[in-house]
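Inputs:
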Amino acid sequence: MVEFYGQKLDSRLLMGTAMYPSPDILQKAVKASKAQIVTVSLRREAARQQSNQQQSGQGFWELIRALDVRVLPNTAGCKSVKEAVTTAQMAREMFETKWIKLEVIANDDTLQPDLFGLVEAAQILSKDGFEVFPYTTEDLGAADRLLEAGCKVLMPWGAPIGSARGLNNPYALETMRNYFPDIPLVVDAGIGAPSHAAKAMEMGYDAVLLNTAIAKAGDPVTMAKAFADAIDAGRAAFKAGVMEPRNMASPSTPVAGTPFFKLD
Amino acid sequence: MSNKQLKITVRGTGIVGVWQAFVLASKGFSVTLTCNTKEPFKEASSWIAGAMLAPFCETESAEPVIRRLGLSSLPLWQEAFPHISRNGTLVVAQPRDTSELQRFARQTSAHEFIDEAKIGELEPDLAGQFRTALFYPDEAHLQPHWALSYLLQKACEAGVETKFGTSERPDDSDYIIDCRGIAARDELPDLRGVRGEMAIIRTSEISFSRPIRLLHPRFPLYMVPWPDNHFMIGATVIESDDQGPVCVRSGLELLGSAYGLHSAFGEAQIIKLSANVRPSFPDNIPKIIVRNKTLYVNGLYRHGFLTSPALAHLVADYLHEGKTDEGIFVVEH
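Outputs:
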């Protein structure tokens, strides 16, 4: 069981909803993974559609609602505090949720978070009643500031968004886990393979958030299940206690008492 | 029963409706083609389509049924429209995005990896720009406006009567073939719009013989050469019903990627920026929905030109002998 802002959930996989071949495949992938939270990025066109909608049709947003899971809207692609705050407010209205995955992007090439803007936006949004899930780095100073700003979850990156590189800085991620033993921590972004997700869970991370690795897989539905299984395995391993690496070989069957070598 | 006895009204003059009218009239049915605007085509999402006949490339993100329909449509296009170009498709990526090329190759078939020399042979203006590319020799492309007008003319020659500027539902027909695209949402609540934005530019400094797809992790793009030095650049895929004009960001992405493909496009003239929505069902697969005496042919998503001819023949087969294709037909009772 993992808890975000008082919400207890069984699944430790948070799934993005972009880039799937179709909403139908997205729905099947969510079902196969048993994910209970999906992130949705809000583009302005969508909001415009919402306010203009006069027809009886079923848009993408209705299909997302029909997934019957918690929606975590995000401020993907926002490059300034103002833009992120405005997008968050639109998302709150549209999805009727206080939750927001906060992204403030600093660098267009790596899409790394702008930590200064992130802290500022987190302060504004927390004061405004939002429950903020900040997309951040492993920087402990920024993490402290985010917690002071009112965040009760932290989401450090594994690697740049969509890069499929896995956990670029395992040392820093481990340090962060040890430094904040009681804060729910989610590895967000950069995950490419289920083994990356399992690794994060073995470190004791509370959950993993990813999108591209499932959406762009040859068979997204099977890949969603693979990630769910890897996350379960990693979590179980963490709870069971993963053994530390050793420098010296140590046979699992003792050899000292072996009476004689095998004779041909 | 002779086909002549069956009166058919085809509603909608997008690529679906025009193909339906043409095929059904050619098979001897008595066909009336209607649309709600005085001028045909222009409101249809197919008016701003890329019109690539790319059954192999499209399977990168589409279901196998799209390839099947596309493959049966290709010869039908060749037979009906002499101005089709069958020069294949070239898929390229910048050196730092070669993993995109690997992924695209893995997801698709009927392609070959080609080197710099072969790229230059196929597209001299791209010589030296890319070290490797994927070539799909069996794909084709056409100019959508030309194809729509040409097919409409052929449909009229085959006996189709046209009634443009009417939105009334005909009541004296034996069958209605409803091809109104997103406008049919009043009767098909599952339909949603997927917004697409495109640009048309013109330059004589550069020419291509086939569609070029530039893979990119963020801004994938395709460019289709049209007659008279025109190029169509497409297309965004945004989950939205908004039919409003192209936004600045999308415009920048499209034009910026074109410039990235070749700097000569920096001097091209922007002829037009257009947007519309693609009618789509939740699985992004076309459907023929039979509801009493109405057949809805809809949800062609990105694959209007690719699959319309095959769908027209499926409808004709249904009207002839009640044959239904699994995976495409939904017969409601």
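Remarks. Chain B has a mean pLDDT of 93. The longest strand of chain B covers residues 269-280.
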